[in-house]
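User: quick one, fold this
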Amino acid sequence: MTADRESAACQYPLTRAMTEPAETPVNQPAPSQPDETAQYASLLASGERVLAVRRRHWFTFIQAARWFVLVLGAGLVVALLRAQVGEGGVSGVLNDALGWGFWILFLIGVAGVGWYYLAWRRERYLVTTRRVIEAGGVINKYSRDTSLSMITDMIVGHPWIGRILGYGEIDLLTASETGTNKIRFLPDADGFKKTLLDAKYEHELDVGGGRVAEQAPASPAQAAPVAPSSSPPVERLSAEEVDASVTRLADMRDRGLITAEEFESKKKELLERL
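Assistant:
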């Protein structure tokens, strides 16, 4: 009897573990993505949205600060030489000079490396629904814009060291006076180009009226009744964007793709969005 009770006591925990339902883990909510449009609102126009934000690869910081890194290395060499010089007599004067040299080189090197690190941390490349924005600056902030309508082509390059470290470079060919906007040390350059091409396509549809043509029904019979709703806010355009759009419409008119009445109507609409 005693043996049977001990056997039953040993089997009970196993039976209990098999019969009790396993605790189901509580689903944790997915971390919310930061609202990058709100974060960079000071750089954006009304109705403009941020589609992608990139910081250049850390290797650009190493390349920019390489001379100050060499200065730090020179300071280390001076410190090693000072350790070999005595502190008495003429050697003491040389020892003091080497000490001052070490601290000067050290402070210059640290200041330079720290400055380039802050500049690298604050620099950003933004792709929005209307522009490519380069923003940065440690003390004096700056921002340089390239309108999507002014970009005519893109060239993506992958240098050998970039393939190893994971960065590329993009040349934005534009119709402006500057000609080419170069972006170096860009992580996932192919993905950045894809985002930029998608943004440019959407922008051209919106500005050139292509979106309206795509969404129009084939015949009046197919048109579904539209519930009355408040009209969305009209997106404002810059003078460069309006000029590029009007030039494109004029070319379509000259080739017979649209009539003169359609050209004048669309031109008037674009001018109202200035």
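User: anything notable?
Assistant: Residues 147 and 262 are 25 Å apart (CA to CA).
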